[in-house]
Amino acid sequence: MIDVHCHILPDVDDGSECMQESINMAMIAKEQGIDKIIATPHYHPEFKYLKGEELNKVCEEFKKQLKENNIDIEIYLGNEIYFTYDLIEKISELDFYCLNKSKYILIEFPPTNFPLNLCNIVYELKQKGFIPVLAHVERYIKIHDDPEIIYDCIKTGAIIQINSSSLIGKQGKEIQRFCNLLIGRNMVHLVATDAHGSQRRRPMMKDAYQYIEKKYSKEIADNLFINNAQCILDNKEIIIEEPFEKSMEKVSFLKRIFRR
């Protein structure tokens, strides 16, 4: 499996605190069946997180340590970009990393100041040559209140990511139910760990993969955990199914059940 959202690099943000913890996270990931990880440290204008070439040096040293410890996991570099209202205007000046030097960018939004014009933001990022990957959309109350926001964003060109822990109920049954609502409408393209440590928010994906395989199909599980993520690594277009309109929600869920 491929994890496209993981805070595994040591001492660069609020994720892993040291190299040994990063190594421990990698060992957990390997046991889970993860063999490729895009490290996505936070890129936040108000916090002094490591960025630019210094961040790349940490990534290279981590890869060296993995090799010395015989942990066979490929590490790629990206950022999780925190949205601010001047992001679009300043984006060409910022030294963030796209996901493995691709056109895909991972972006999160302020939960208490969620943008009302999300679809327009997706459109403007697309116009600038990026494909926005919207991180952990199940965490936003605004989207729970109006899932059509995600439908419109997908139609505009966004890629949607949810967290593996949310999918299997670790964040509560309501968030799990919402994840299934989105999947049932073809409105999820990636499942990732958003892991932050080896003791808390660990890089766990196996249970989530098996959950999708059992509830929907192996084909869907492979797309959410492997195939679409590989497209990002290869900088290729993700071929996504048309999202279902709200009126088609129950029909789409039944179609996926009987696909198994």
UniProtKB/TrEMBL annotation:
It is an enzyme of class 3 (hydrolase). This is protein-tyrosine-phosphatase. Pfam families: CpsB_CapC (PF19567). Belongs to the metallo-dependent hydrolases superfamily. CpsB/CapC family. The lineage of its organism: Bacteria, Bacillati, Bacillota, Clostridia, Peptostreptococcales. One of its GO terms (molecular function) is protein tyrosine phosphatase activity. It comes from Intestinibacter bartlettii. It catalyses: O-phospho-L-tyrosyl-[protein] + H2O = L-tyrosyl-[protein] + phosphate. SUPFAM superfamilies: PHP domain-like (SSF89550). Transmembrane segments: none annotated. InterPro entries: Caps_polysacc_synth_CpsB/CapC, Pol/histidinol_Pase-like. It comes from the Bacteria. Its EC number is 3.1.3.48. Keywords: Hydrolase, Protein phosphatase.
